[in-house]
Amino acid sequence: RRFDLQSSNRKDAHMQMCTKIEDTLKQQKLYTSPVILIKDNVKSADREKAKEIIKKKGGTLTEDEDEATHIVHPKVDLNNELYARPVFKRGDKCLVHFVMMPDSQ
Length: 105
Known about the structure:
Helices cover 30% and strands 21% of the residues. It contains two helices and five strands. The chain has helices at 11-27, 44-57, and strands spanning 35-38, 60-61, 70-72, 84-90, 93-98. Strands 2-1-3 form a three-stranded parallel sheet, covered by helices on one side. A two-stranded antiparallel sheet has the order 4-5. It starts with 10 loop residues before the first helix and ends in a 7-residue tail after the last strand. The model has no long low-confidence stretch (mean pLDDT 87).
């Protein structure tokens, strides 16, 4: 069966269905709301904006880094000259890490 989520006359029913799904997932511990830690060195204005967004999206704030599922760090000014760094070199081959990208596993 297809769901037309754009249909305005079924919007309430669809929202109710999505809410019920979210509640069921939370009860079965298959989904947890994000727990966010905002680092102390984040600017005050950015901290307040982040708190508003977290509250609006249903997350919770914590002061314990071990409890946090997400950590907000301060904005970093990038050096446009430095976009990658060498990690490992063997012969004429070099493994590089690109700045602002996650490490490979």
